């Protein structure tokens, strides 16, 4: 294992953890979610907020899982694989459904999809080269 390979693994874990933390904040603070998804008239129901808080708990758990994996990057590289599938691909599917239902404008999702594509490529590269 080279220093370069360790760099890519650690970058993957820490970048993933940071992005998950930002996502958890969006889930916990509806006004942040609305602002980042171009939803000016967003008024979530209590049911929506309840579901998002449940999801935020899982997102924060995944944040900690990625930080944990960064402590032993080679031994825990499998975390990157399951972050790509089912986690990122599941999020993409959910976002496509949200766009098709006209809940979130596609213009708000394009940057998210670009970021997710970069993460999939980075995580796959790091995993394959570990």
Largest sheet: none
**Radius of gyration over all CA atoms, rounded:** 16 Å
| Secondary-structure element pattern, one letter each | HHHHH
Q: Uncertain spans, ≥5 residues at pLDDT below 50?
A: none
Mean pLDDT: 98
- SS element count, helices: 5
Given helix and strand content, the structural type is mainly alpha
Tell me the β content: under 5%
What would you note in describing this structure?
This protein has 5 helices and no strands. It has 130 residues and is an all-alpha fold. The mean pLDDT is 98. The longest helix has 26 residues, at 3-28. The N and C termini lie close together (7 Å).
Descriptors:
5 helices, mainly alpha, single chain, elongated, 130 residues, 81% helix
Short summary:
The protein has 130 residues and is mainly alpha-helical. The chain has five helices and no strands. The model has no long low-confidence stretch (mean pLDDT 98).
List the helices and strands and how they pair.
Layout: H1 3-28, H2 30-36, H3 46-71, H4 78-100, H5 106-128
Helix pairs in contact: 1-2, 1-3, 1-5, 4-5
């Amino acid at each position: 294992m080279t220093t370069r390979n360790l760099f890519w693994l650690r970058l993957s874990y820490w970048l993933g953890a940071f992005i998950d933390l930002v996502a958890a904040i969006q889930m916990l603070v509806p006004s942040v979610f609305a602002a980042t998804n171009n939803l000016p008239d967003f008024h979530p129901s209590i049911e929506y907020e309840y579901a998002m808080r449940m999801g935020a708990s899982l997102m924060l758990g995944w944040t900690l899982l990625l930080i944990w994996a960064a402590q032993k990057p080679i031994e825990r590289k499998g975390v990157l694989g399951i972050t790509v599938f089912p986690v990122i691909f599941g999020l993409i599917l959910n976002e496509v459904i949200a766009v098709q239902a006209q809940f979130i404008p596609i213009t708000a999702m394009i940057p998210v999809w670009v970021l997710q594509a970069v993460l999939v490529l980075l995580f796959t590269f790091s995993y394959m080269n570990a």
